[in-house]
Amino acid sequence: MSDTRKYLILMRAVQRLSPRMALFMARRVLRNKLAPRFPVRYRARLATIEKDLPALSGPRGELPPGLLVMAEIYSSEYREVMDRAREGRIVVLGREIDFGAPAKVDWNHHVPEEGDHQLWRVKMSHMGVLCPMIIEGERDHHLAVTALAKGALENTDPTAPGAFDAYWFPYAASHRILALTAGLIVARSRKGLPQETDQAVSDLLRHNVAFLLDNVEHELNNNHVERNLAALCLYFSYAESVPTRIAARLERDVAHLLETTILPDGCQVERSPMYQGLSVASLAIMAETPFLSGSLRSKLQERQAAAHRAFAILSHPDGEVALFNDSWHGEAPHYRGLEVPVGRVVLSHGGYARLSRGDDVCLMDAGPLGPAWNPGHGHADFLSVEITLDKRRLIVDPGTSHYNTGADRTRERSAAAHNGPGYDGYEPVEFLGSFKVGKLAQARLLPEQELGTDTIGGTFYAGPGKIARLVRHYPGRGFLVADLWDTSSPRGRVSWLVPTEWQISTSESGKLQLEQGNARAWIAPLLAASEDLHVTPSHWASHYGHRRGAHELLLRPHLAVSRQQTLLCWIGSMPPPTSAHAEGQALLEQLSSLVTRLPQESQ
Fold first, then answer.
1. Which residue range(s) make up the domain with 142?
2. Section 239-255 average pLDDT
3. Number of domains composing the chain
4. CB within 8 A of 38, min separation 6: which ones?
5. Do residues 449 and 594 share a domain?
6. Which of 264, 352, 358, 393 has the most CB atoms around its CB within 10 Å?
7. pLDDT, tens digit (0-9, with 9 covering 90-100), for 300-359
């Protein structure tokens, strides 16, 4: 990519910032430059904030569910590896690094293959492993907690070059406050902690709260701010007192966050199913914050309930989230709770639709890339679907294996890597680096009233022309997918990813039969000729930093007499019914009518 094009993408991204965000972005840039240049002054600034902070008090009565859920989020993630942390062996994102002892942990550890985005280091800096060590650990765990907390306080410096992208990344500080506050309050409500351990954790907490008060990430106005504010709300909910100025500030900031980042249907505005799960937990903490006004807490409770419902809709029967946009398993809570209504469910503001019955599910992404002001976590997965049959994932999203700049990041965000109908050689979005976006695009859900109750669909206006997709559910059998391109060129394409746990064989009729243990599935193109189906090795990522094998099934559409391109594909646990071809043709005719009739601005 040329320097000129990079510059144009950057200018497009900057122009979409609100004046408020631009002001805070300028402040962030100045902080990054001035703190290392004037370290004594910046440390003095933080010390002044910390000096006036109230200490964390003990629990008051029965612990609320939001606090307990937050503690369990960190405990469930790190419970199985806390014994290793006791010895200085830190396990994050499936990778273990042995530092030799808790006191020797290097909080600025660099992982070479993570390049320009050191997520392993940032994730380690969350210090989430301390939560189960505090709550469930024995004496040797508590000694390790003391050493880890003291080591972090003594051996990290927010004025060091690069500190704001490492241990003192405000998002990481937020997770530290959430994990340590939740752990400390739960432990104090039970058997308590050794005095030295309690003091070491309390000292680290105060330092982090002072830092975060000075560094809320308003320049992003996204999930980072949500985590920032949840952390501050949790700490001050259990502080000995709440300074009036801080209570007023959090009232204002939480209200702004709720208004701008949580949509009416509960979807978090960045449209990541993973971050959706974290939003549910953060909103619960805010709704339990006693010093926020009653009216704001009531709104938080309502929106948290909607967010919980959206999280349920965006989860598969295996309890893990869909992998649309930046998402992976193991970061958000494993879904438990609300039952999703059977049949069709639509998140009209979030741009998602779902068909389900029993353990068969189809989810469709038919929304924007993300919020215009910060679409950095978006992927070009327009009209993509994920399909689970009998609780086994069959059609998967490529996922997110890395954030750092490189070929994997570029591929996993591209339209070509996803199964939404696309055009050869055409990418609808301009991506730069890890999170910057130039040209935007968005899909839209087709109106529910125009479709049968067993059908979901969406449209997407790409550069070469309009694209549309309908999916019809045949309960107990499978799903029929109908795709339409309203131009004859460039050539259309659909690329399904199937995990290699499924073994593929081809029948004489051109249907693909798949087996996984005693499970069977069929993928059958109903219009394409056999030479228009190609199966090649590929990969997907259900967990960050780890790629898994996949079969890539590339299908080419049929060129209709109308000069439109069309494709019908059956995906099910049984072969397609004899009526599938005729009913698919009816879906294509409906798509053609809708694409022609709906005004372009609704595309």
1. 38-215
2. 97
3. 2
4. none
5. yes
6. 352
7. 999 999 999 999 999 999 999 999 999 999 998 877 777 888 999 999 999 999 999 999
